[in-house]
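Chapter review: from sequence to fold.
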Amino acid sequence: GVQIHYGCAQGGDNVEIGDYTAFLTGNLIGHIVKVERNTLVGPSTFLHSCNIGENSYVGIYSRINTLPKEKEVINDGKNVTIWHSSEVINDIPDNHIHTPDGRILRKLRG
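The token string follows.
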């Protein structure tokens, strides 16, 4: 199933949410958003024109946003971690971490 906590607002069209996905309190979901299965979206995030791959985590106060319109859609791969307070304006490859200062780091495999 999908879990959406109170205070979330979905104000756009073309929104797809995969199974076993949770949106915590106070998220804003804009147009053209696809969130694949087994993803956790932290509180107070803003999603607009993005695809988030499965097994991903979006940290509190993060923004995934194409505005001003430089790209049509931002593609975040599978198994991606977006740290708190991050402003994501570029694609993130599979198995990477996006930091609040905009760096994209590869996850180590153990």
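Two observations follow directly from the output. The two ends are 30 Å apart (CA to CA). The chain has a mean pLDDT of 92.
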